[in-house]
Amino acid sequence: MKPGAISSLSLSSRQELADYKSYLCGQRDISPVTIRNYLSDLHSFIVWYETKSIKSSEAIRVGFQLEQITTPTLIRYRSYLQSQLKLAPASINRYLVTLKSYFSWAVDLKKITNNPATVVKLIPLMKSSPRQINDAEESALVSAVTSHGLFRDRAIIILMLHTGLRAAEVCQLKSEHIHLRKRGGYLQVYGKRNKYREVPLNATARKVLSEYLPTVTGSWLFVSRKTKTTITTRALGYLVDKYARIAGVEDVSPHDLRHRFGYRMAETVPLHRLAQIMGHDSLDTTMVYVRGTSEDLQRDVEQIAWQ
């Protein structure tokens, strides 16, 4: 919100912004940046309402009246953001979420009796495929950690590439969760909401674990050298980033290693089985691994080009 911008608003609008700011500032779990964004979004809506939605002369006389804001008013505002300002869906949704929060607060304070924003739908977002690590990048990453890393680090990266574990699941592994057999094996994993599953181990994962396990002295599988307890998800992120930079591979996170596993498995494994291995509650989540990337789609349409 630009300095002096509030002065162009009606008196009732300025008071409304001040009241909402006092409320937001009293919430311990809201950061100053979030407060600033909420107030900026609300200010933008009020400016639109007083200058675009109703005649300026009427706005000066009546000002911003909460009880006059209806669901159709908010839908017109959504259309204004979309068709006239041509904002991206994510930006439009941020404005709408701010208004939903604001009107919910107004209902709680009994400023209004009904929330006009409740039924206003957000703009659907097109789901994009997660980043895909290719064969060369995977090879470079494994080579980097093998040549420059600790045995622990190599075990972590290879295990993630061959099991698809979430970062938090890796950090919670204990030696007792590892079950190795000559021709098989599995991990006992406690995932989101402490949901239990057993993740099978292929020959590569079994080999690296059988080599690494004799070096483990405590109960935790992957221990931080600094804290002497299990590695944290933050430290795991630093670890992956470190070897990615050594390998010359840009922008790689632990979750990208999980995605690499998902993409490779989806090439040959039925989705319902992949969902079971990766701990997905819904096949909709697993579907991301069979959705084409922008490069895939570009390559597909090029096949019918005339040139």
Account of the protein in words:
The chain contains 14 helices and three strands. With 307 residues, the protein is mostly helical. The chain folds into two domains: 104 residues, DNA polymerase, domain 1; 157 residues, Intergrase catalytic core (hpI Integrase, Chain A). It has a three-stranded antiparallel beta sheet with strand order 1-2-3. The radius of gyration is 26 Å and the shape is elongated. The N terminus is likely disordered.
Top keywords for this entry?
single chain; 307 residues; mainly alpha; DNA polymerase, domain 1; hpI Integrase, Chain A; 2 domains; 3-stranded antiparallel beta sheet; 14 helices; 5% strand; elongated
Q: How do the strands and helices of this protein lay out in sequence?
A:
Blueprint: H1 11-25, H2 32-53, H3 56-62, H4 71-84, H5 89-108, H6 135-148, H7 151-163, H8 167-171, E1 178-181, E2 184-190, E3 196-200, H9 203-212, H10 233-247, H11 254-266, H12 271-278, H13 283-286, H14 294-302
Antiparallel strand pairs: 1-2, 2-3
Helix pairs in contact: 1-2, 2-3, 2-5, 6-10, 7-9, 7-11
Quick recap:
By secondary structure, this protein is mainly α. It is built from 14 helices and 3 strands.
